[in-house]
Design a protein that fits this description.
The chain is α/β, with parallel strands linked by helices and 286 residues long. It contains twelve helices and eight strands.
């Protein structure tokens, strides 16, 4: 679970509801598209707030960056219907979001963790609309076996407890009490994590969790797409070990960047260094 370092929006950003051909999505939108536009897709249990710390530096560099809540994720509504969260449905949402934010030129696409699997599916469906693809801490296929065990436990708890997200939250706190405690929370981050969890549609988490433990290797398909690609991660990754990401980048003929001092979420753990890499990569795609 990504833990944003702050919830304070920078001066360059605004929060609003983005109208698309496939519904309304909550977004954080920062900057003007002087150099281009980028769409930022959060991961499993995440939200648009996972990118808050990237907004100002990227806006200052001349990019318009739009971070989204996918359907059923935090402040974007979604049905209590598992079929609505199939990967192809989420990819179709992403294409509709691109159509809604596009200005002049194509849009750079970034997916973090599970968001990278959605981004990959969207690119494979239609590569022509994108200026580049960045896979941030997102690997070639299903997550590592140890994380599959944890994810399956969560899926089981969600299925067993129906819509009682508070009960599942409390069970999660028993497993990771320090990580999810709301005690001593002067900045309100833990309270936000709790609020975000309660607002997320359980069916969305069940289906996306199942996708994380079953995703096939589609690297060869993606390698055939003539699009600039970046694979970026921290020095350590528990979902997709960094050697997997190294090998994936080589198979993709993609640029590979490792952010020092970061783990699974360089966007929140080392945002300045991460923004610098993104700025440099997107500039090469012009």
């Amino acid at each position: 679970m990504s833990r944003p370092p702050t919830l304070d929006l920078p001066d360059a950003a605004r929060a609003y509801s983005l109208e698309t051909a496939r519904g309304t999505f909550a977004v954080l939108d920062a900057g003007a598209p002087r150099r281009g536009t980028a769409l930022l897709v959060p991961g499993f249990t995440g939200s648009k707030e996972d990118f808050v710390a990237l907004l100002q530096p990227l806006a200052d560099a001349g990019w318009r960056v739009v971070a989204i809540d996918g359907r059923g994720q935090y402040e974007s509504e979604g049905p209590h219907d598992e079929k609505a969260y199939a990967l192809q449905e989420l990819a179709a949402d992403l294409i509709a979001q691109e159509e809604a934010v596009r200005a002049d030129g194509s849009v750079h696409l970034l997916g973090h963790s599970f968001g990278g699997l959605i981004a990959r599916a969207a690119v494979l469906h239609d590569a022509s609309r994108w200026a580049s693809l960045t896979l941030m801490s997102s690997g070639p296929a299903a997550i590592d076996a140890s994380q599959q065990v944890r994810t399956k436990l969560l899926i089981h708890a969600l299925a067993a407890n129906g819509n009682d997200m508070e009960r599942v939250w409390q069970e999660m706190r028993q497993v990771d009490p320090e990580d999810l405690s709301t005690q001593g929370d002067p900045d309100g981050i833990e309270a936000f994590l709790h609020r975000r969890w309660l607002a997320t549609v359980p069916e969305q988490l069940i289906v996306t969790g199942l996708q994380l433990v079953s995703e096939p290797d589609r690297v060869a398909e993606l390698a055939s797409v003539p699009l600039p690609k970046l694979v970026i991660s921290g020095e350590v990754d528990y979902a997709w070990p960094t050697p997997w990401l190294d090998a994936m980048a080589e198979r993709l003929s993609a640029r590979r960047e490792v952010i020092g001092g970061a783990e699974h979420s360089p966007n929140v753990e080392q945002p300045t260094a991460t923004a610098r890499v993104l700025d440099d990569f997107w500039a090469t795609c012009q």
